[in-house]
Predict the 3D structure of the following.
Amino acid sequence: MHNVVYNIFYLFADIFEIFIIYRYMDLFFGWECHTKTTWIAFSYYFSATGVLHLFLDIPLLNLLFSLSALFFVACTYRTKFWKKVCAVLFLYCYTSVVELIVGGATGYVNVDITESGKYQNIAGLMIMKLLFYLGTLIFYNIKSLKMDSNLFLPIWLSSCSVPVISIIIAFTLFFNNGIHMVSLLISLSLLVILNVLVFYLYDLLSQFYMKKTDAEILEKEKQYYFHQYELMKKMQENITAYQHDVKNHMMIISELTEEKKYEEIQKYVEENIAVLPTAHTYSKTGNIYLDSILNFKFSEAEALGTQLHYQIEASEEYIIDRRDLIIILGNLLDNAITAVSDVPNKEIQFLYRENKGRIIISMMNSYDGTVIVKDRRFMSRKKDAQYHGYGLKNIQQTVEKYHGTVNITHDPAYFQVKILLYPIK
């Protein structure tokens, strides 16, 4: 009876292991690297490590079959060969260490790898899979932090605590000699299901935050583009109005010229220039993304009575992703506008220069002299700073994407941020 129950749970645990490997491969290679043969490879893995184990339980053969099956799974992903080898070796070394530790702790010692195995501890098997799952979840969390998925530390710790608590429960069940085998099987199965659901919910939560960030960036894009559209529309209306009246103006100037009334000509021209409606455009590089952001933010700053000094040297080509441009420039200008709004001396000095494959950005603004630094990081002074999706942290992470640097300096009167980017076309 015990053998039958163990074999059933072994197959169930093997399915759980396949789920873990699937998530691990997605994290290591990227989910978009799947191929049509990936699921066939996982089916082979289940046969080689699960079904075959029931008929041929020899540690050495199990090692060879599972390693070959794992490599077959890795080969179905579209990525470089050395990455596949690294992924398989790291994964197998980790699982082997876990199995040796748990096996030794649960009494499986002095094993002959050429003879049939005798390990049939259900709780020990469960602990192995949960430790495997915990390692994958930690890897997932670390990658999420690097990708700035905006998941907070309590959520990070909570997700990792579930497999840890499950391992403790499994150990407790292992040392409970009075528990019925069926009850043990049901309890451990429910623990597996619970951990799968937690991983799934954590994944949904991560996707939610990423979509929320994307939506916020998209909303900023819409504002910038609409403002740029309004500027271009107003300029076109001015040109059309001028073209409509230009004939009449030329006739009057011609008559004044014939009469040699040069002073009146000058006065007439000055009067018409004074009443000519204009649309102030700060940036005219031809790069619609760059122009849209700068025109929108500079108009906001000028509406506050800010003294603007800016220098823009850029080509029409897009040498940096528009989303990254919005994150960097949008945050810099937002922070500067917020800072100058609290002081009487409102001043912003801005530089954007594309030079020899580099992008140089400098932002200096007046502020009230108050700076909050925590753990060598500049902190937001907004009340909702914990939930704010933008800031110097996002700027730093985006700059790192382009192998750049961020240098922040300040004195009692001015706050300055200098950024150097190396875009790769």
Remarks:
- Residues 98 and 403 are 37 Å apart (CA to CA).
- Confidence is low (pLDDT under 50) at residues 385-390.
